Amino acid sequence: SLTPFVYRDHGSLVNLSRFSTLGSLMGNLSGNQFFVEGKLARLMYMSLYRMHQMAIHGRIKTAGLWLSEKLVRVMRPKMKLH
User: Which of 13, 42, 46, 74 has its CA 20 to 30 A from that of 53?
Assistant: First the structure.
């Protein structure tokens, strides 16, 4: 039999742009809520995003998606010219 699902809020992370990420985390890390921003929040956001991709697509497809994102970033111009 299946065990019932219980939602546990662990905080939230918000990606505002490529350079700005904010987060409010709570729970096991500090016993109460704390605020993160900048590069640490961006790293946490990206790792959470990859974890969700792995849960949905699996490790191999997530690795392929990550590699394709890196290749597209190299090939795409930084500015749109039209």
Answer: 74
* DSSP letter, residue 68: H
Q: Which tokens belong to 60?
A: 């191999």
Q: Which residue has the tokens 């994102």?
A: 69
Give 10's DSSP letter.
Answer: -
Phi, then psi, of 47 in degrees rounded to 5: -65, -40
Each of the 82 residues of the chain gets a pLDDT tens digit; together they read 889 988 876 667 777 766 666 676 655 555 666 677 777 777 877 888 888 889 899 999 999 999 998 898 888 777 777 6
N- to C-terminal Cα distance for the chain? 58
**The pTM is what?**
0.61
Q: How many CB atoms lie within 10 A of CB 64?
A: 12
Distance CA 1, CA 44 (A): 34
